[in-house]
Design goal:
It is built from 17 helices and 13 strands. The protein has 521 residues and is an alpha+beta fold. The longest helix is centred in the middle third of the chain and has 29 residues. It holds the Pfam family GGDEF.
Length: 521
């Protein structure tokens, strides 16, 4: 009864302290992988020592089953979690070790299952051994001890590598404390195992000493995880890295809501309510923020052009980079905003200048109609497409006397008036150009019925003549001669088309008659 009570005081009752530490770790931050693995380690400790108490004091007749199917996997889970914790605590210096974690977990459990399958359970655990020696099969015990010692040593190496690579002072202090505690745990484990194998200690006493050592180490681990923020949360990380950044940086959650922003972003977004910030942005292709975040999950990092309109601060042209943060406990996105307003203004000026240059290169500077070069390109395109059309060549009558009598300024106004009348009488598909001083070209889509085409051309030209030119009491009637050449009826190349229309037009001039002439078939 005394031994039972001592086991209760020294093993069972304190083991629930592991449960308390696990609960507090999860309560502190259940989303943190570090806290979850630490809590799992504490629970594995609790179940291991709870199994030891049940095996020794309550159900000794089932000690073989408890050891092989309960305590052994729990002890293996403890050392696997220990290595996992070391990798997490040493991050980012130990990020390369993460890919080996599946093997770390699989290796000891594979050997454990191998022993259970290949050997008789009574051989693996001889319950009749009561002389203080370990009842475990020597080979099974040796491999178990090697795994425990090896994984503790591996954890020490991982933490030592992290301590060597990490430059942040607080992080180095935590790593140093953990290294020291692991060295002491390893030394305690070796000492107790040596005393057990030397028969200085019985299995029961060794188990109590193991429990005391693991409990003290777990308390130290829980203290370090609780006291120090080993894995900094997103706010600390954000302010450390980006507080002084010259660009605007926003931290978004999965819904696209702003969680945090740096001083430059606050300056740009001053006066805008935080929950309405994203509505003041206009992104490339008008893509919603949620769709952009979904795209980032596939490509990890994307870049778009964006515009920001702040009624109080003005407008900005921006280059936006969006990146997913994977090291935090929740999915967070960093939005980098670079001001390229001055570059965009220069780009727009350059584009407008280029457009103006192209416009001037294809348009008559006086009338804004197409010039000779532009008409030539348009005619070539229509001929290549085998598109039927009629080319009307128009030459003004008595234009030189107008210049001589009223001056070139009035003459220019007269030409502009003619251009305006031609545009007003044209259809959307028509093309009108000025190819000389008083010569105009009008290209209209032709029809199979030539008589109908002649009627349409005559009607449109008659409309041009209806509105005379007036300027400060001066009224000048519109008079011109015109000739028509049709593609492909009259010619199949530009030179011949122009020549035929020109001949038809001069036929009318020689007759000293305003009208229209078309070549006969």
């Amino acid at each position: 009864m005394n031994e039972l009570f001592m086991d209760f005081l020294t093993i069972l009752l304190p083991s629930f302290f592991f449960f308390y530490m696990a609960v507090t770790l999860l309560h502190r931050n259940i989303k943190s992988m570090l806290n979850r693995i630490a809590a799992l380690l504490m629970l594995a400790f609790q179940f291991y020592f709870l199994g030891e108490y049940i095996k020794t004091s309550l159900l000794p007749q089932y000690q073989m089953q408890i050891v092989l199917y309960g305590n052994s996997p729990m002890l293996l889970l403890v050392i696997c979690c220990l290595v996992h914790l070391s990798v997490l605590i040493g991050n980012p210096a130990t990020s390369a070790f993460k890919r080996f974690l599946p093997f770390i977990y699989a290796a000891p459990y594979t050997l454990w299952l191998g022993f259970l399958i290949t050997k008789d359970h009574r051989v693996l655990y001889n319950a009749e051994v009561t002389d203080g020696r370990s009842p475990l099969d020597p080979q099974f015990l040796l491999i178990t001890v090697l795994f425990i010692a090896g994984y503790i040593l591996l954890s020490v190496i991982i933490l030592a590598v992290s301590w060597y690579r990490v430059k942040e002072i607080k992080h180095r202090q935590v790593l140093r404390s953990l290294l020291l505690s692991l060295f002491l745990l390893f030394a305690w484990f070796v000492l107790v195992t040596f005393l057990l194998q030397s028969k200085v200690l019985t299995s029961r006493n060794a188990m109590i000493l193991f429990f005391i050592g693991y409990l003290l180490w777990a308390v130290t681990l829980r203290h370090l995880v609780g006291k120090y923020d080993i894995m900094p949360d997103y706010r600390k990380l954000f302010h450390i890295l980006f507080k002084s950044a010259p660009t605007a940086i926003l931290l978004l959650d999965q819904k696209g809501d702003v969680k945090e922003m740096n001083p430059r972003a606050k300056q740009w977004l001053e006066g805008i309510p935080v929950h309405h910030i994203m509505s003041y942005f206009q992104f490339e292709n008008n893509m919603p923020v949620v769709d952009m975040l979904a795209l980032v999950q596939q490509e990890n990092e994307v870049q778009w052009e964006a515009q920001l309109h702040n009624p109080k601060k003005g407008d900005w042209d921006l280059i936006m980079g969006l990146e997913l943060i994977e090291e935090t406990d929740e999915k967070l996105y960093v939005m980098h905003l670079t001001d390229v307003t001055s570059l965009k203004v220069a780009e727009r000026k350059l584009l407008k200048s280029e457009q103006n240059y192209k416009y001037l290169a294809h348009h008559d500077s006086l009338t804004d109609l197409y010039n000779r070069a532009a008409l030539h390109e348009l005619l070539l395109e229509k001929i290549e497409r085998r598109e039927s059309f009629a080319l009307i060549l128009i030459d003004l009558d008595n234009f030189k006397p107008i210049n001589d009598r009223y001056g070139h300024f009035v003459g220019d106004l007269y030409l502009k008036h003619i251009a305006l009348m031609l545009e007003n009488c044209s259809q959307p598909d028509d093309k009108i150009g000025r190819i000389g001083g008083d010569e105009f070209v009008w290209i209209i889509s032709s029809m199979d019925d030539n008589s109908e085409l002649d009627r349409i051309v005559d009607h449109r030209l008659s409309l041009v003549q209806k509105t005379p030119f007036t300027y400060k009491g001066i009224e000048i009637p519109i008079s011109f001669s015109a000739g028509v050449s049709q593609f492909p009826r009259d010619a199949t190349d530009i030179t011949t088309l122009m020549k035929n229309a020109d001949e038809a037009m001069y036929t009318m001039k020689r007759a000293r008659k305003t009208g229209i002439s078309a070549l006969a078939d």
